[in-house]
Amino acid sequence: MSVIVLLTLTGLGLGALYFLVASGLSLIFGLMDVLNFAHGALLSIGAYGTWWAASGNLPGAGPGGFGFVLAVAFGTAVGTVAAALLELALIRPLYARPREQILATVGISLAVPALLAAIWGADARTFPGPKALSGTFGLLGADVPVNRLVLIGAALLVLAALKLFLRYTRYGLVVRAGVEDRAMVTALGIDVRKAFTLVFAIGGAAAALGGALGGLYFGSVDPGQGTSLLIFAFVVVVMGGMGSVTGAALASVGVGLVQQFANYYTTAGLGDLSVVVLLAALLLLRPRGLTGRLA
């Protein structure tokens, strides 16, 4: 029983990490029709920004208490700014040229890890997390890492915030309307471009937060971390339904649990294969994914 509890909560923690990455990816693609391969780079930027700040390089930030909260906020803010700049400088001129979009974002996804490796080295860096989050707590005989609950809580907050943004805020409604008929919304005097930049920044913030908290899960950061997590984020987005935040949340839970249980009860590494099999089976039964709709 204790093994089941541990695997379940660990799988939910991993699924929460996947959701933080996939939510922004799904939001950007569903609302803006941009397949952003540079999303993993935004995660890496958030992870390294948090690591740099928590290592004592930012006044007031540190590996414990409020200092760590400040470090996470700094890493998330850096990722948010990077996402906004990416949309303004690179994506906005290419909205009508999807092929060039893909090439440009793939280029960024390769350049950012190389830049991070050039500055801080290619080896993984130990993540300076709080001691309170590095321990465990007992649940039904299992010793569960505390940081899994932090990831789950963060994912739930992000899910609630995104749904509220899309349904009840002016910019959320503007963006949804702009996706359906951009010309009509523009004719009403509404600047859709500002709303799209905001959406890109929100997606980048979610990815950067995933990178910041991913350091807690893995215990380290490395330049290629964002790229590896982006692969599973794309799987989650496809399984959940392109553009569906709710679907991404459901798919994240399924992928995280399947991966953890398969890795434990079978040969190590088969967890990744089981995720691919799950994706194929789902697409055969539901080609549009779990929900196939926005929000």
Automatic annotation (TrEMBL):
InterPro entries: ABC_transp_permease, BCAA_transport_permease. It is a multi-pass membrane protein. Keywords: Amino-acid transport, Cell membrane, Membrane, Transmembrane, Transmembrane helix, Transport. It is found in: Cell membrane. The keyword Ribonucleoprotein does not apply. The keyword Cell membrane applies. It comes from the Bacteria. Pfam families: BPD_transp_2. The chain crosses the membrane at residues 6-27, 34-54, 66-90, 102-122, 149-166, 195-218, 230-257, 264-285. Belongs to the binding-protein-dependent transport system permease family. LivHM subfamily. This is Branched-chain amino acid ABC transporter permease. It comes from Streptacidiphilus cavernicola. The lineage of its organism: Bacteria, Bacillati, Actinomycetota, Actinomycetes, Kitasatosporales.
